[in-house]
Amino acid sequence: MRLNEYRVLWILVFFDLPTETKKDRKIYATFRKNIMKDGFAMFQFSIYLRHCSSRENADVHIKRVKKILPPQGHVGIMTITDKQFGMMELYYGREEKALPDTPQQLELF
């Protein structure tokens, strides 16, 4: 099936984890490092995103995130289409900011 902006997905993982104790901070850092190892990039301090070429690929990465969920705190996982992501408006102060680059897709015929 041909890739298009309605089938290509973005996964957003947003979290609010406790950081009061040294153990909490270690759990926070481990979770953050693990999602980055899986290809997620920081969008904001507690929001990470990853580009996926299909629903099946997104499901693999969502399962990986669920497998490493910390014992406490709040974690949200949201999937949106590339089309929806492209309609987002970003601002830094009052200046409009460009969206993050979409990774290049390799299409085999």
What are its keywords?
6 strands, 3 helices, two-stranded antiparallel sheet, alpha+beta
Question: Could you characterize what this model shows?
Answer:
GO terms for molecular function: hydrolase activity; metal ion binding; RNA endonuclease activity. Its EC number is 3.1.-.-. Belongs to the CRISPR-associated endoribonuclease Cas2 protein family. Homodimer, forms a heterotetramer with a Cas1 homodimer. It is a single chain. It contains 3 helices and 6 strands, in the order βαββαβαββ. It has a 4-stranded antiparallel beta sheet. Strands 5-6 form a two-stranded antiparallel ribbon. The relative contact order is 0.25. The mean pLDDT is 89. It is 31% helix and 29% strand. It has helices at 22-37, 55-67, 82-86, and strands at residues 9-16, 41-44, 47-52, 74-81, 90-92, 95-97. The longest helix is centred in the first third of the chain and has 16 residues, at 22-37. It is α+β, with helices and mostly antiparallel strands and 109 residues long. It is globular, with a radius of gyration of 15 Å.
